[in-house]
Specification:
Layout lengths: L7 H4 L15 E7 L7 H11 L4 E4 L1 H6 L1 H9 L3 E4 L12 H12 L6 E2 L8 H7 L4 E2 L15 H11 L4 E6 L5 H17 L3 E2 L3
Parallel strand pairs: 1-2, 1-6, 1-7, 2-3, 4-5
Length: 202
């Protein structure tokens, strides 16, 4: 559960970060990390179109540099984007000035006021610096579609078990997640719709 739905103690390490936004009507925030890439992201966009929902894509700056047409496709289809650093770097592995430089380098390609740290890891000074310029969007449910130890059914069951009103749910438009995500994502969307959830973007 620590990974799939971080406990209150872990959330307290990131003051000012957003993990969940409950609303009067049942809602969820569907998000995708680590893209865009041509092998996966267009499929995700087509799937979202099929269900008529909008999502938020936290993009790696270097991927946006390499695949600007895919990034433009995300925006043209009405989805939101956020900064996920330039090289998918973990804040705890870099000194704060170097981490901020990496985020700002990504910002040259990703014009957004949203930021999500890769792996959810940051030093407290990095949180303080980044929240001056960004809304730091974390997550309430991460079903680990990227894990080789998970199955599509396991990913789907994690969505069912942990999702609640206002959850930010994280999938990944990445090669590591492709097998699990391509089966679990449509099933998850259909289940969420059947349960009466509306899909929102922050």
């Amino acid at each position: 559960m620590f990974i799939e739905q971080p406990p209150a103690l872990y959330r307290a390490l990131f003051p000012g970060a957003i993990w969940r936004i409950p609303a009067e009507e049942k809602c969820v925030y569907l998000t995708f990390d680590d893209g865009p890439i041509p092998q996966i992201t267009p499929w995700v966009l087509d799937t979202l179109d099929r269900y008529g929902i909008k999502a938020t894509f936290f993009c790696v700056g270097d991927n946006v540099r390499k695949y600007p047409d895919i990034y433009r496709m995300i925006l043209d289809r009405g989805h939101r984007t956020g900064n996920h650093t330039y090289n998918h770097v973990q804040g705890i592995r870099l000194l704060t000035p170097h981490y901020i430089d990496n985020v700002e380098k990504a910002s040259a390609y990703i014009r957004s006021d949203l930021f999500r740290p890769p792996h959810g890891h940051m030093r407290l000074p990095q949180v303080w610096r980044l929240r001056k310029c960004y809304r730091i969007i974390m997550w309430d449910v991460v079903p680990r579609d990227y894990s080789p130890h998970m199955t599509p059914n396991g990913v789907f069951n994690a969505v069912k078990k942990y999702t609640r009103n206002g959850s930010f749910i994280v999938f990944h438009d990445s090669l590591k997640a492709e097998k699990n995500m391509k089966e679990a994502l449509p099933r998850s969307i259909e289940w969420l719709q059947e349960e009466g959830y509306h899909f929102k973007t922050p």
